[in-house]
């Protein structure tokens, strides 16, 4: 049986993808922090007769140790991973650091995706067509603040999401170089504005802006329909998709030298943490 692992699978686009893969007969493991949302996913699956294929694991993926725990758990319990969807995000209008000392968007939107992409590559390689879907910036959301990856100076508010998106684009580029011997495909997707929960904590002006996005965004079903063809048959080892349209991975947002640099800097940051 094929397996889909979905971070942020308890809500928004991730939840819709989780339901899609359940309906296709996959075993689906969703990750999130809310036990209530996790139970809602498992209960809905049970009602549709797929309860034995739906699993929820509660994890705060903004913590490095939690990502490592999840990688171990998946490695122990899954023979292979066919689809890995990296969709967890939680935005705050003001800068917050995680207990590991990382800016919170950097930690959840980028570092968790770095750890899970590389940490699950062996299981992805065991699947017939292992594929990673990472919601990045599809080359549009840089530039990277190389001297301030933790966004300590002039925290950009919602711009922090775009900054992490740019880091995810570079992660996708370098993933294929590190794992050039595996057939694993990497799909970077910017879905455009989608009407989801926009999980986060916002000041009043950002909350008003987010409310407008919730009302004006496209339905989740459309965002899913725009990405599924690329997930089902990725046209290249690395594919970038912007609102359902394939875009070039040769632009400045996908520079291989920047991708290698970010990989190195990330390894250095991780090396500074206790194992
Ligand atoms: N919606 C848009 O307009 C839009 C635009 C561009 C890009 N995207 C990207 O698309 C992806 C999905 O976005 P969305 O809008 O569908 O998401 P969403 O509705 O805001 O849901 C966020 C998900 O992340 C999970 N999450 C939050 N904090 C977490 C943590 N610390 N550890 C683990 N999981 C956590 C939440 O689960 P719990 O509540 O259970 O923790 C939830 O399932 C994201 O990468 C987003 O950046 C979305």
From TrEMBL:
The keyword Translocase does not apply. InterPro entries: NAD(P)-bd_dom_sf, SDR_fam, Sec_Metab_Biosynth_Oxidored. It comes from the Bacteria. Keywords: Oxidoreductase. It holds the Pfam family adh_short. GO terms for molecular function: oxidoreductase activity. This is Oxidoreductase. It comes from Kitasatospora indigofera. The lineage of its organism: Bacteria, Bacillati, Actinomycetota, Actinomycetes, Kitasatosporales.
